[in-house]
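Retro notes, item 3 of 5
We never archived the inputs for the heme C complex last cycle. Fixing that now. Sequence and ligand:
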Amino acid sequence: MDFLDQSVLPQSSQHLVLIRYLLVLSYLIFIPYVSLLFGSLSFSLFFKYRWEKKGSADDKKFSKSVIDLITSGRGAAIALGIVPLLSSSLGYAQLLHKSGLVVPGFLFLSSILLLISLLLIYTYKYTFHLKDIFSYAGKERKKETGIEDDIENYSVKAGLLHKKSGFYGMVFLVTSLYLYFGALELASDSSRWTDWNGLVGILFSLPALISFIQFIAGSFMITAAFLLYKHYRPNSEAAPQPEIYSALIRSISLNTGLISSVIFALLFTAGILIHPVNSLSFEFFIASTSALILILFTSILYYSMLKESVVKYSSVLIYVILFIFALSVVKDQFAFSTASKYQTAVLDAEYQAHIKALEEASGTAAPINGADIYNGRCIACHNFDKKIVGPPYNQTMPKYEGKKDLLVKFILNPVKVNPDYPAMPNQGLKPKEAEAVADFLLSTYKK
Ligand code: HEC
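Structure as it came back at the time:
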C-alpha cells in the first residue's frame, strides 16, 4: 500500500487540522450507515433462517422488509458507505505519513471488502424479491406451455444465489468492519505504533475486539430504533399491519434495543478503562461521560416502553443514538490527536523543509539565520524552558558548551540519546544552517 503514502504532499499544520475535521465528518456519516446495514442484514438473515426452519409467514415478511430498510437506493451505499471510508483512508495516509504505520492501507482494504459486501447484499435483496416473483409466476402460468421449465429452473437458481449472497455478504461485511475498527484502534494508541504494527496485532488485540463488539451492540441499538420508527410512525401512510405482525416487530425491537444498549454501555465503559494512558485527555473524559449518560438514557427508554408494551419515543431514540455515535467518534478523535502529537510535529517540520526547498529553488530564500531556522523548523518540538516533544534546550545545551562541533553533528544526524523521548527525526538541514542554528541555541539559552 505504498502508493497511499506516496500520494501525500507535505502539509502545513492548519491543513492537518482540516483533514482531522474531514475525518470526523466522514465517520459521522459512515458509522450510522454501516450500523444500520449490519443490523438489518443480521435481522434479515436470522429471520430467514427461522422461517426456513419453522415456516412462519410473518418471519419471512419481516426478513424481507428489514433488508429493504437500508437498501432502498443504491446511491446511498456509495455516498454513505464507500466514499466516507475511502476518504478516511486518504485522510489517515496524510496524517500518518512517514510514521510507517499500516492504518491507511488497512482502511483501503476495508473499503474494497465493503464494496464487495454491498454488491452481495444488494444481490441478496433483489433475489429475495425475485424468488417471490418466480413462485407467483409458477402458480399463475402453469397452463402456458414452454416456460414452466424455465420458471422452475431460474427460480432454483435465484434461490441459490439468494442464499449464498446473504451469507457471503455478511462474511465480507464483518471482515471489512473488523479491519476498520482494528485499524482505528491502532491509530489511537501510539504505544503500539512500532512494535504492534501489523495484521496480527490488529486482529488479536483486546481493544480491537472490544470496539468491534461494541459496534455490533450499537448497530442493534440503532436498527431497533429505526424499525420502531418505521412501523409505528404517527400518521404513517403505509397500510396498517395486522396486529400479530406488529406485535412481533415491537417485541423484537424493544428486546433487542434494551439488551444491546446495556451491552453497549458495559463495553463502552470497558473501552474507557483499558484506554492507553498516552491518549487520555480532558476532552476525552468529557465526551466519554456524556456518551455514557446518554446510553443509560437509551436503556431506560427501551425499558419503559417494554414494560408498558407501547411504542412512543422512537424518533427521540434515533436522535439520541445518533448523538451517542457522534460523541464516541469525537472521543476517538481526541484520543487519536493526543496519541499523534509527535507525529503532527514531524509532519509540520517536514512541511517547513518543503517550503524552504521551494524557496531555495526559486532563489527567494533569505540569508541563513539561526533564529529563523529555530522558529521555522525546531519550535514545533522544542522550547528553551519547556518540554514539548523534545527536551528543553536549557537542559540539553550545557553539555554542548564549547563543543559546537558535536552539536552541529547531532543536528545534522540525530541519534537516540535519552530513553525518555522518542528519537528526533532528521531535519535535513545543510551544514551551514546547522551551524547557524547551533550558534543561536548556544548563545540564547543562557539569556
Ligand atoms: C519532530 C520533533 C522535533 C523537531 C522538529 C526537532 N527536534 Fe530536536 N529533538 C526531538 C526529540 C524527540 C529529541 C530527544 C531525542 C533523544 O533524546 O533521543 C530531540 C533532541 C534534540 C537535542 C538534544 C540532543 C541531546 O544531545 O540530548 C537537540 C540539540 C535538538 N533536538 C536540536 C534540534 C534542532 C536544532 C532542531 C531544528 C532544526 C530540532 N531539534 C527539531 C524532536 C524534534
